Amino acid sequence: MGLDQAMDISVSGINATKTHMEIISSNLANINTTRTAQGGPYRRKIPVYSEKPLEFSEALNNAEKKISGGVEIREIMEDQTPLQKVYNPGHPDADSDGFVSQPNISMSKEMVDMVYVSQLYGANITVYNATKRMQQETLSLQ
Q1: Residue 100: CA atoms inside 13 Å, Cβ hemisphere, count?
Q2: Which end of the chain is flanked by fewer CB atoms within 10 Å, N or C?
Q3: What is the pLDDT of residue 68?
């Protein structure tokens, strides 16, 4: 694997974790949203990571080396865990029994995810910078 490809893989990880942070931010911003444009409360969003495919020519050249093209977020799914029910008969979105369906978002879970994703982001930045240093040192040898 060349240094350019190592940098590309790090960049793909940086971009994927940036998108994941945006999803976490959206979840936190909608923690109290009981009515969306689609109707019903907001549902927590979850990113699905996958291996980023290489271009055909790259894949052919690297078939024996088993080198991947990095990582990407393939899709963003809605968390299907049950919604929270809160008794609040005066709320405009309350059902006939006085319960309001709240989003299935846990502040603590989102914060744990945020710490984890920030660590992933930092690791990808570290790899990128180390690769950049190796490239610079290689150029200075010539």
Answers
A1: 17
A2: C
A3: 61
Structure tokens belonging to residue 47: 């990113």
Query: Is the separation of the CB atoms in 48 and 74 below 8 Å?
Result: yes
Q: What is the residue whose two structure tokens read 């709320």?
A: 91
pTM: 0.82
50: phi then psi, degrees, rounded to nearest 5: -150, 165
Rounded mean pLDDT for each run of 10 residues along the chain, 142 residues in total: 81 95 97 92 96 67 62 94 95 94 96 97 95 88 66
* Terminal Cα distance for the chain, rounded: 21
Q: Give dist(CA 78, CA 68) in Å, integer.
A: 28
Nearest-angstrom CA–CA distance, 112 and 74: 22
- The helix/strand/coil state of 95 is coil
Give the span between the Cα atoms of 26 and 29, in whole angstroms.
5
DSSP 19-49: HHHHHHHHHHHTTT----TTSS----EEEEE
- Nearest CA-CA partner of 4 in 41, 58, 42: 58
